[in-house]
Design a protein that fits this description.
Shape: rod-shaped
Number of strands: 0
Order of helices and strands: HHHHHHHHH
Distance between the termini: 116 Å
Helix content: over 70%
Strand content: under 5%
Number of helices: 9
Structural class: mainly alpha
Largest sheet: none
């Protein structure tokens, strides 16, 4: 029993001595390597953070540069829109002068002593001339009633009585469907509708004139007003085609110049 106790005591002492002894060299090397690996990992993480910070700074600089470019482009776009608008208004005003589509009502004469008549304006809106008649020069003289009826309707148009003039020109065309003044009556009937923005009826009259009398003096103006009526109806593509036809069919005429101006105005209008 004593022998067993001695043996057990000796084993305990040896175990304690073994635990108290220093760790082997390979174990110390493994622990040092782990510590170095941890330090290297930390250093790598720090470098990644530095790289990320540099990228963020670079992106901020690029975003600021892009913002400056966007602001500059917005300013240029505003200037272009304003310039286009000014050109559109200028062309539209010039075209309205060339058009002369809205006859102005004559002012009422004063009750005082009569004054000498003023000279007509250079761009009188509703102007007319006797139609050209080829062959027998007495044809116009033989149509006194026709001319009288035509003059009554035309005077109503000049006075700004558009509803009355439309009714009178319509009656004239029904009475004289193939008269000397029928082409003129068709034109001014269309004009009576056009100035009151009844573009659909105006288009019908101008088209009838152009199709029935393609070589008449008022054919270029009728084709022009067809395009303008289509524009009034918001048929922009059809209006552009018709106005282009005016330019190609009647080059050098006032109608062609007015059609060209309106085409430019339509194109500028698309940019607004």
């Amino acid at each position: 029993m004593r022998t067993f106790a001695k043996t057990l005591a000796a084993s305990i002492v040896c175990g304690a001595a073994a635990l108290a002894a220093p760790a082997p060299a390979y174990a110390q090397r493994a622990s040092l390597a782990d510590r170095v690996a941890v330090l290297e990992q930390r250093a790598a993480n720090n470098q990644a953070n530095v790289d990320l910070l540099n990228q963020v700074t670079q992106l901020k600089s690029e975003v600021q540069a892009l913002r400056s470019q966007v602001e500059e482009l917005q300013q240029q776009n505003q200037q272009l829109q304003q310039s286009s608008k000014n050109q559109y208004l200028d062309l539209d005003g010039r075209l309205n002068q060339l058009e002369g589509s809205a006859p102005a009502a004559a002012p009422a004469p004063a009750a005082a002593a009569p004054k000498p008549a003023a000279a007509p304006p250079p761009h009188a809106a509703a102007q007319d001339r006797p139609p050209t008649v080829y062959g027998d020069a007495g044809t116009v003289a033989q149509s006194a009633d026709e001319r009288s009826a035509y003059d009554v309707a035309f005077n109503a148009l000049k006075a700004g009585l558009y509803a009355d003039s439309a009714r009178m020109f319509q009656a004239f065309i029904e009475t004289y469907p193939n008269g000397t003044y029928t082409p003129n009556a068709l034109y001014w009937l269309g004009e009576s509708y056009y100035v009151t923005q009844n573009y659909q009826l105006a288009l019908v009259q101008f088209q009838a004139l152009y199709e029935r009398y393609p070589t008449h003096d008022k054919a270029p103006g009728a084709l022009l007003k067809m395009g303008l009526s289509q524009q009034g109806l918001r048929q922009v593509d059809a209006a552009e085609r018709t106005l282009g036809e005016v330019v190609s069919r009647f080059p050098g005429t006032d109608a062609a110049r007015a059609a060209s101006d309106r085409l430019n105005a339509l194109q500028l209008g698309r940019l607004r």
